[in-house]
């Protein structure tokens, strides 16, 4: 009984401290689960080519397209990443981003954050987006750092996620029935919609909290991996020790023909021909010549866990190294799937819908929990008032 009181105290105060953050993170998570699909619907003029492209028509060289993109930006703004879609009806997305990691507010966090959408077959710019003010970007930044910048907001989100994981675990102990009798079991597994408001609110908190527990813990675990690099490293190393299967880490690297004078163009041509069936290619551009070109291949739609990643020497154009999800140990595989697990994309639309509803329930828990606390506080104040009145009557 004493232990349960202590668990209840922990559950209550962690909820009161982090409740508003959990509410915001859960609601923004609901929206962001379907951001890939929603963007294509909301912004078709950005992501789809306005005129049909013949199947035989080839794309313009990436280096030339980067020059076109930067020409349409302000002086000093540089393209740092390119997202390439092999579908003939899709534009290529050129990202220009520079951040101030010490900034306190969102308005100061991005020095600039823009996206240039280009028809890669004609080299024409379809749209230029100020991503800093774009709806889904604001939702993402709310989810990641409450619009308070990475230095402070990210830390608040990280510890709130940790608190939520403890709330979930303590909530499970509080939910556990004292006696497993039919009546008790029904009360713990079903919501009595005909009950009075207080009881209905309690059921919504208690019962829905139980059903959403696996997803809530998954959100917490993957959120902590994102928030704390030390935690990610610990998970990676711990799970790797459990993986006893030897991986084939020796990979025969192909020789890359240098058909042009631009090594980035040559590297991309190789990757496109090697992985013609991939869903997306992402290129991270390096300012330093000593750093290799980084080209990531996403094999599955809207998923990051199944990939190849190539590093090309900028001078010679040859492959420095290559990583693939196939050769990762258990820890590496789990952490590389972290985004897929966090957003529910690992099982396609079915798990995305489950993640959406789970996040919606998680958003409701701080609200119903606060109402429970409020009702109990009112009852306690009323009881204390009655006790004082009784005591004063006895004193006469």
Automatic annotation (TrEMBL):
The keyword tRNA-binding does not apply. This is Iron-regulated membrane protein. Keywords: Membrane, Transmembrane, Transmembrane helix. The keyword Iron-sulfur does not apply. The chain crosses the membrane at residues 12-34, 152-176, 208-231, 353-374. Pfam families: PepSY_TM. It comes from the Bacteria. The lineage of its organism: Bacteria, Pseudomonadati, Bacteroidota, Flavobacteriia, Flavobacteriales. InterPro entries: PepSY-ass_TM.
């Amino acid at each position: 009984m004493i232990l349960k009181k202590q668990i209840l105290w922990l559950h209550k105060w962690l909820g009161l401290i982090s409740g508003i953050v959990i509410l915001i993170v859960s609601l923004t998570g609901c929206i962001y689960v379907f951001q890939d699909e929603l963007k294509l619907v909301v912004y078709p003029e950005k992501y789809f080519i306005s005129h049909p492209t013949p199947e035989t028509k080839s794309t313009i060289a990436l280096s030339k397209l980067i020059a076109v993109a930067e020409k349409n930006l302000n002086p000093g703004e540089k393209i740092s990443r390119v997202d390439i879609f092999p579908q003939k009806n899709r534009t290529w997305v050129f990202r220009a981003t520079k951040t101030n990691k010490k900034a306190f507010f969102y308005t100061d966090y991005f020095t600039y954050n823009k996206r240039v959408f280009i028809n890669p077959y004609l080299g024409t710019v379809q749209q230029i987006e100020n991503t800093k003010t774009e709806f889904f970007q604001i939702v993402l930044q709310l989810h990641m750092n409450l619009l308070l910048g990475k230095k402070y907001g990210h830390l608040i989100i990280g510890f709130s996620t940790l608190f939520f994981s403890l709330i979930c675990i303590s909530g499970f102990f509080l939910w556990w029935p004292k006696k497993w009798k039919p009546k008790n079991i029904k009360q713990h597994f079903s919501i009595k919609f005909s009950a009075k408001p207080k009881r209905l609110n309690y059921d919504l908190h208690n019962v829905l909290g139980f059903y959403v527990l696996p997803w809530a813990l998954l959100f917490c675990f993957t959120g902590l991996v994102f928030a704390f690099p030390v935690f990610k490293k610990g998970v990676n190393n711990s799970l790797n020790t459990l993986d006893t299967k030897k991986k084939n880490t020796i990979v025969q690297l192909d020789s890359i023909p240098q058909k042009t004078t631009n090594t980035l163009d040559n590297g991309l041509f190789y990757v496109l021909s090697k992985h013609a069936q991939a869903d997306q290619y992402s290129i991270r551009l390096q300012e330093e010549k000593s750093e290799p070109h980084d080209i990531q291949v996403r094999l599955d739609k809207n998923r990051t866990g199944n990939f190849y990643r190539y590093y090309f020497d900028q001078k010679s154009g040859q492959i420095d190294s290559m990583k693939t999800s196939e050769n990762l140990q258990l820890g590496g595989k789990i952490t590389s799937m972290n985004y897929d697990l966090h957003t529910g994309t690992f099982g396609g639309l079915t798990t995305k819908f489950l993640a959406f509803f789970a996040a919606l329930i998680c958003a409701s828990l701080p609200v119903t929990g606060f109402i429970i606390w409020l009702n109990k506080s009112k009852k306690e104040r009323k009881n204390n008032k009655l006790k004082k009145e009784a005591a004063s009557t006895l004193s006469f």
